[in-house]
């Protein structure tokens, strides 16, 4: 019996170390793909230039696109009076387990000038949601790899890796849809 318990403990430690090594390898893969802000959390800034579109057109396209997009959860939280900035909150599903979902919450802005836009998003917090609807917000700066004393390094590290892999194409897609925005035709079927 004692041998079984000792063997089980050794296997658990071995698997734990193996997972930690794998997580560190994933994080090393994306190390130079994001920039830390003054608090050490990821900030993504991407500028799109030479668009041959007026500032007004870009702002209107962005507002229309963000109001009709259904594949991401993006909310305009504030519009500047000068129509040169939209503040946004973007939520993406990062992990889904049998009874728990983890979302990445980004806060940021879309800045507009003649012929160009800049999208700036900062990973703000994780939101864990149990199947019963109970929510657990966790500030990103308190999680691994931004806080080396994270509570669950493997889970938090892999969640960051997955969120990073989701957000980069999302920024490009968002910009592309703002630049080439076309209104959905009204399907008024009078039959």
How does this model look, in words?
- Helix 1 (2-29) runs parallel beside helix 3.
- The protein has helices at 2-29, 55-68, 153-179, and strands at residues 35-36, 42-48, 73-79, 85-96, 100-113, 116-130, 135-139.
- Strands 1, 2, 3, 4, 5, 6 and 7 form a seven-stranded antiparallel beta sheet that branches.
- It has one domain (38-179): Alpha-D-Glucose-1,6-Bisphosphate, Chain A, domain 4.
- The protein is built from three helices and seven strands.
- With 191 residues, the chain is of the alpha+beta class.
Quick recap:
The chain is an alpha+beta fold. The protein has helices spanning 2-29, 55-68, 153-179, and strands at 35-36, 42-48, 73-79, 85-96, 100-113, 116-130, 135-139. The termini are far apart.
How would you classify the helix and strand content by structural class?
alpha+beta
Secondary structure: number of strands: 7
Q: The CATH topology is what? A: Alpha-D-Glucose-1,6-Bisphosphate, Chain A, domain 4
Integer count of domains: 1
- What fraction of the residues are assigned to beta strands by DSSP? 25-35%
Text of the CATH class: Alpha Beta
- The helical percent reads 25-40%
**Which descriptor suits the 3D outline?**
globular
* Poorly predicted residue ranges: 10-18
Average pLDDT, to the nearest integer?
Answer: 83
Q: What is the first-to-last residue Cα distance? A: 76 Å
Order of SSEs: HEEHEEEEEH
The CATH architecture can be given as 2-Layer Sandwich
Q: Helical element count?
A: 3
**Radius of gyration computed on alpha carbons:** 21 Å
Largest sheet: 7 strands, antiparallel
